Amino acid sequence: MKIATFNINGIKARLPRLLEWLEETRPAVACLQEIKSQDEGFPAAEIEALGYSAIWHGQKSFNGVAILVDTAAGYTLTEVQRGLGIPGPNEGDEEQARYLEADVSGVRVACLYLPNGNPHPGPKFTYKLAWMEKLRARMAEIWAEEVPTVVLGDFNVIPEDDDVWSVKAMASDALMQPESRAAYARFLADGWTDALRTHNPRGGVWTYWDYQAGAWQRDHGFRIDHILLSPECADRLEACGVDKVHRGREKASDHAPVWLQLSL
Description:
Layout: E1 2-7, H1 15-25, E2 29-33, H2 44-48, E3 53-57, E4 65-69, E5 77-82, E6 99-104, E7 107-113, H3 123-145, E8 149-154, H4 167-170, H5 178-189, E9 193-194, H6 195-199, E10 208-209, E11 221-222, E12 225-229, H7 231-234, E13 237-242, E14 258-262
Parallel strand pairs: 1-2, 7-8
Antiparallel strand pairs: 1-14, 2-4, 3-4, 5-6, 6-7, 8-12, 9-12, 10-11, 13-14
């Protein structure tokens, strides 16, 4: 079973790139972030035409997550939960569209778009840390079910110094603050396995390149898109990687897809 995560950075603007990637790589499960579309604007028909079924949790202009499943290949999709029950960073905010969870042919899949947290310090950074604690609590609940689980998406955390092209350039960013890193490290201490790190222990693998300052052309990137595995899935991990070539295409997302292959 091939499972992937892709911050699409606007599903309407990147739809040709998304469909192209799905056709070329054919993941069984594709988790999307930053679809930036209300529910009624989600391009379900175009995705279904490729043999995928989808569930999505949209929000106008911002955020938004979706899970696509290759039902044409026989995989099944059942929604489990949307949202973590935490309001936005400002008083009176409703919950943002950042979390979607489903069962796919016996594997629990949790798709997330973790808050960026900038500017740091401030309410958005406080919200980021609170959201991570809420996620950790949900992951503990799933763990207790002893179901094979993959938690994946844009975590907006650079875990280690070798996950970024320049530590100095990102030193003041919320993605690299000690509190962000410590919250991510707690996921691993709880027993979850970072799939990409497992296959690339020396780091140096990027999943994001900014549109500014020639970051893509200069390979000034960093790793913020992660796939975490429960022990039941970690034992089945065969391969994982980054579809970097798709970042270099015309009108591409600023993220590249990240994927893994599980034996069943």
